[in-house]
Amino acid sequence: MGGTKGYRSYRGRGSKGKAALAAVLVLVIVAALGFLWVQEYIVYDADGGAHLELPWQTGEAPPAQEEDPQENVEVIVQEPERPTELAAFSVVGTPLTQSAWQETWMGATVMSAPAYNAAAVTLKDSTGHIYFAATDAAAGTVSTVEDTAAALAEVTESDFHTIARMSCFLDPIAARADVENVGLKNTGGYIYYDGNDLNWLDPNKPAARQYLCGLAQQIADLGFDEILLTDVGYPTTGPLDKIDYGGADRAESIRTFLEELRSALADYGVAISIQLPAEVLTSGADGDAGLVLSEIAPLVDRIYAVTTADQIPVLTDAVTAAHDGTGFVAELTAYGPDVTGSCLILPQS
Q1: What is the number of other CB atoms lying within 10 angstroms of the CB of residue 119?
Q2: Three-class DSSP category at 195
Q3: Distances in Å between the alpha carbon of 14 and those of 19, 131, 260?
């Protein structure tokens, strides 16, 4: 008998069995994938019944998977914009009270023209008085009443663009309080009196500039959007030949003050403006005062000048020519239909 006794040659499972098993596995996988694919085209009607709608039956593309609305959402925080054109009214009353603010605000908002978007408050005037709770101020300068702080808070929390007027070097109280360190002297070594018998801080003295920068920082801390500097410069009336300038270049002293002020307010986001005589805008300079328009304009955001409506175009062009990025604001006694651009209506005397 052929082969080993009691045994046959063993060859394992045949290749046909393996092929059949592989085919079954492929069919299972295809069926599973097909089932998942079909799920996308099962549509439920109003009664809850399910039926199949294939793409070639409806002519529509497969439904796109909806994204979570919370994903890929870009959050943009936009800072409030300052008005490009100002229509400002002046708040009466120094020191300010809540009743004065409300009365002025109501009187301004009921007027039909202009549509006011800004309010100006005097926080330091040319007599040297300060109308907020300033620290490190010269003795006798701070003048407030019980509700001044609350009134100022109402102003800064309002929807208006808020402007704080701050007189600078014309300051009889502070100048007399510390003549050596901050006061402007005459050639005899005493305090200088201008043509109106008033005293000035000396722009060439670092302590005088530092004093004003410190007050401006405190005003910015109150929340005002803009600080309007007035009485910037040297005296232009009285015996000018008797002023002791200390060898200073007057224009350089004013430029230094504005540069130091910008640096002091850099972190506050407050606009810096200056009031200049209209004649400085048309002529370009006032040598006695130390004012040079081309040097001042790049250091401020706006330039104000007391003028009339018919002069607005000329003064606007002068400011733009000095620095294209600086705005002009006309200070007017009243509003009229011929007013163009930004304006600040002065308080009625």
Answers
A1: 24
A2: coil
A3: 9, 106, 97
Identify the band that residue 81 occupies on the pLDDT scale cut at 50, 70 and 90.
Answer: low
Q: Which residue, 165, 138, 169, is CA-closest to 257?
A: 169
CB 342 within 8 A of CB 304: no
Strand 50-52 relative to strand 42-44, pairing:
antiparallel
DSSP-assigned beta bridge partners for residue 303: 274, 328
Q: List Cβ neighbours of 144 (8 Å cut-off, separation of 6 or more).
A: 95, 131, 132, 133
List residues bridging with 229 in a β-sheet.
Answer: 166, 274
pTM: 0.77
Please state, in angstroms and rounded to a whole number, the distance separating the CA atoms of residues 149 and 340: 35
pLDDT at 74 (0 to 100): 58
Q: Which two tokens stand for residue 210?
A: 């530092």
3-state secondary structure of 77: coil
Mean pLDDT of the chain: 86
Q: Which residues pair with 271 in a beta bridge?
A: 226
Question: What does the radius of gyration of the chain's CA atoms come to, in whole angstroms?
Answer: 39
The secondary structure of residue 249, as a DSSP letter, is -
| Phi, psi angle pair for 183, to nearest 5° | -80, 150
